[in-house]
Amino acid sequence: MAIKKSFENERKELVRKLIMEGVLKTSNVIRAMLTVPREEFVPQKYRDLAYIDSPLPTLEGQTISAPHMVAIMCELLMMDVGMKVLEV
After folding, report:
1. Among the options 6, 27, 54, 65, which is catalytic?
2. Long-range contacts of 52-60 (CB under 8 A, 24+ apart)
C-alpha cells in the first residue's frame, strides 16, 4: 500500500517565503495559499516539485503558473472569504 505524501510543510514554507518577499500581504490570500493543495493540480510526476516557486508543465505544452504569480493575481483581485478563482 502506497503512503500518500503530505505537502503541508512545503506549502507552509512557500507561503512563509512569499510573505517575506512581500508578495503575499492579505490574510484571505494567505489563508487560500495555505489551504489549496497545489500538488493536486500538477501531473503525478511533478508533485514533488509542486511547491517550488516556478511554473510546472501540465498537459499539451501548457503550464501551471508559478506560485508567486498566482499570489500576485489573487492579491490584485482583492479576494474575500467565499470567493473562488479559476486561473486558466
Report:
1. 65
2. 53/14, 53/17, 53/18
